[in-house]
Specification:
Helix content is 9%, strand content 50%. With 253 residues, it is mainly β. The strands form two sheets. Strands 1-4-5-8-9-10-11-14 form an eight-stranded antiparallel barrel.
Length: 253
Amino acid sequence: MLRPLPAACLTLAALLPASLPLLREAAAADLPTRQAPPLPLPIPPAFTWTGFYLGVNAGYGFRGAPASFTDATYGTVAQSSSDRGGFLGGVQAGYNVQVTPGSGLVLGLETDFQGTAFAKADAAYLGTTPYDSVAPNLDYFGTVRARVGYAFDRVLVYGTGGFAYGGGGRSTYAAAYPYTLPDSSRIGYAVGGGLEYALTDRWSAKIEALYVNLRRGWAGTATAYDAAAPAYYGIGRTDPGFAVVRAGLNYRW
């Protein structure tokens, strides 16, 4: 004779089919995941100084003169030795090639053009008679220079040197000079160095120091004496070289 099943067994048998999905989910949660790992973040390309650039600059030029000089015909001329420099500003353009990406050797070529506001020559005297300079003004100058530097990522330290030229208008005393006036154009050289920092991939700021020497062929220019004025007229003496300190901003592409 069959005996009836206990009530607990009947209850367990009734609940078993409903519990199977939950058991499957619990077992699946314990298994290792089969999803693909996330892709690594892309590595940005190394910064490079290679490319063209165009920019602006502004600064100051320091220009001196001797306190006196000797005129071959009339004797010693006394003049002020105060700074004859002034503010300057202009534009520059160039191209760089970085030999190794990130950090390394950088080669470049740059040209610039500057307008100047240099002070005019102060009064000079030959004895007690005024000596007025007929030398042309230096209203502008420019350079074409090679650049050689080393980049520490976004910091570039460089040296530079090359050709320089300049010129300007005639002296206010030019009309009173009876001889041939000296040429207003000049050529020479420029050397210096600087530091440039890349603010972004496109913009960079720099500070630069140059020594510019514009040699002049005015040694044979004679001094003239005008008894009606009275005054002496000659080229005077101003150092052909001057120092430039300037800051600049470049856009690179």
